[in-house]
Design brief:
The strands form two sheets. Strands 1-4-5-6-7 form a five-stranded mixed beta sheet, with helices on both faces. It has a two-stranded antiparallel ribbon with strand order 2-3. The chain is built from four helices and seven strands; from the N terminus they run H-H-H-E-E-E-E-E-H-E-E. The two termini are about 30 Å apart.
């Protein structure tokens, strides 16, 4: 591997953590397939992450601020893994810009750098979109 390739390879944010998370996602998809509601995948992925020992918090309430004051409204991403990666689950035909904007907003609200937008509604495999700030 030349230096340039190695340098590019190193720039992938949280590579090892994402590899572990992707393994869990693909196992859930292999077991369940596509076509279920998001809540089903949420529960399955929660079990799979736990089985694999991947640290996560499911559906945490994230506080928001407006001009320095906390809002009553909160954001609730599906998962935060390793205390630094947001996972947002969908079960739709295709991911839209609105779905991506939702994850970007979660990242901004938490000062986290990486979100994974996971779509279980695609065939023949789940689709994972990396969104980074």
């Amino acid at each position: 591997m030349n230096h340039e390739t190695h340098e590019k390879h190193e720039k992938i944010l949280f590579k090892d953590e994402c590899y572990q998370i992707q393994g869990a996602i693909f196992d859930v998809y292999r077991e369940m397939g596509c076509g279920f509601l998001e809540a089903v995948y949420q529960e399955c992925l929660e079990r799979e992450l736990g089985t694999r020992g991947i640290p996560f918090v499911a559906q945490p309430d994230l506080t928001l601020n407006y001009k320095g004051k906390q809002l009553r409204q909160t954001y609730k991403p599906d998962f935060i893994c390793f205390e630094k990666i947001i996972l947002e689950l969908k079960s739709v035909r295709e991911i839209t810009d609105e779905h991506k904007a939702q994850v970007i907003n979660y990242l901004k609200a938490t000062d986290m750098k990486l979100g994974l937008l996971i779509n279980f509604g695609t065939y023949p495999k789940a689709n994972i979109t990396r969104l980074a700030l």
